[in-house]
Structures are given as C-alpha cells and as structure tokens.
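hey so i finally got around to running the thing on that chain from the lab meeting. sorry it took forever, my laptop kept dying and i had to restart like 3 times. anyway pasting the input first so we r on the same page abt which one it is
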Amino acid sequence: MAHYKAVDLKGEQFQRYLEKSGVLDTLTKVLVVLYEEPEKPTSALDFLKHHLGAATPENPEIELFRLELAEMKEKYEATIEENKKLKAKLAQYEPPQEEKHAE
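ok and heres what got predicted. didnt touch it at all, straight out
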C-alpha cells in the first residue's frame, strides 16, 4: 500500500509540474482545435505535431526580425504617404501635361 501512495504522490507532483509549465493548457487548446475541426485530418498525430510546433517558444532572433519587419512596414507606409503629399504639391507647381505639349 505504501508503494501505491508513493507512485500516486509522484503522479500528483508531475501533474502539478505540467500545469505550472503550461503543458496541460497547451495540450488542451490543441485538442479542442482538433475536436472543433469540421473535417478531421487523416493523421491526428501530424495535426498535433504541427499545432504544437507552432506553440513552442520561438527563437529570440525571429522575434527581432518580426519587430524589424513591423518597423520597416511603418517606415514604408510613411514614405508612401509622404510621396503622395509631395506629388500633390508638385502638381500644383507644374502646368498640366497638355499645356506643355502645346508650346
């Protein structure tokens, strides 16, 4: 009987470890996604591997690239906006194309 309690205690400790580390939560979420999938995949194991792979912590370098990409997108949008404004300003000072060819 003492052996059973020791195994049970180890199991409880392991369960608490899984809960603290977020493993149970992540597994539950992936299983719910699989359950709610209208067309079940042919390989449930591949589905789990794919979705768990996406849930793993990413390389810090990847996060830096994402931040850099977001910053570049903002700069790009600002440049496009500035370009539009400058084109509009330039159009005010340039005669229409038709008048240029008439001269």
